């Protein structure tokens, strides 16, 4: 492999692409590049028909093996205007819809497994996305392969980074700045279903120190707990008697935000005025986010209550339950996440308006300050931290409500989203091709989570055993609805 790298003058190859069409870029650059740096054989790189029988075909599907990951590459002509754009000022990555579509639909032909990586390139610019069972989000953005340290360096870095990223947990955060929309309920349903039914190793983080609802749903509301962020950052003595977390069955680990400190402490910590300026608090959030995401990637050591043996674990999925509002804990949750799952209350328009405020104002503001920091990073940075939105969760959906028809639902939400979020990053994940049908078609990806009486009982602590069983069954049923849409290819 080393020899081949030396034989090809990659700068020259890229220069030769200038203004050339897609087929040229594919033959002269993409295939040799995949062979040299990723190690795919010629005959492992194919075009793939859609299993659904549509006319769509992937540009390149490179099949991996035990050692290598598989990848779908979408090739554009050199200098294409259709190239997804990352705006480092706002954290917005636009338009990789088609690649997402491929990754979500082309898995089935190939050994019945999903393709974990997608690459978008015009022969010079590269965007890499990760596909976690159908949830697709960007992980690497290279503005220009030729810049700085050059093609060979960046190509090797890309391969290295992809391999690393594939071992990292996917971090999901439920968020809406509006309260009471079902953030905690959705977090709870997902944590239970993914760990119990899908057998994923799940870390559940309660980032809401004022209410600790997530912890309470797991019946962990008494005793002394670390503040989860202090604990994640490693600033507490882990031999301390306080409970850092509690294990639930083999796959699920819960970490609590609840401190034995009073809520005042949490308020103080979360109070941005504690820091002299907005940029001061941003600095704090940024450094916490960096420390914590590094720890989550390496796996974390869990002190088990009642024993002296700490346990080192890596996780498939991390679920962060964010508090409402826009302050330290929610900003940190957003900064850490790969994917934001936004619930709205179907009967409450202001839950949509709040979401729009977040996507159009708070989110860009935060990312302007967070990422990236140096000029060098702005030109070339591998570790993209720019969460996308998953499907919107339309919660409290009552299909028996005579007032509400499916079509109205699309109209209600589309009225806000179509108009307000038209040009923002949210389009990539919430809006799909069907957008062209207008509001009468299915204009956004949303999951209807029904109004559910027994879910309501979750918050009641004094459940009788038989009721608890009933509620837990409901939780798993709702988990099926959520997960089959969020992660359509996930098998246990
Ligand atoms: N689909 C549903 N059907 C019936 N009740 C629900 C549903 N989803 C949530 N609830 C109930 O609504 C209340 C608010 O839900 P939840 O606590 O999950 O919202 P939240 O967004 O986390 O709130 P907060 O902003 O206070 O953290 C809870 O009592 C919960 O049991
Ligand atoms: Mg909550």
UniProtKB/TrEMBL annotation:
Pfam families: AAA_31 (PF13614). Residues 171-347 form the AAA domain. InterPro entries: AAA_dom (IPR025669), DNA_Partitioning_ATPase (IPR050678), P-loop_NTPase (IPR027417). It comes from the Bacteria. This is ParA family protein. It comes from Leptospira noumeaensis. The lineage of its organism: Bacteria, Pseudomonadati, Spirochaetota, Spirochaetia, Leptospirales.
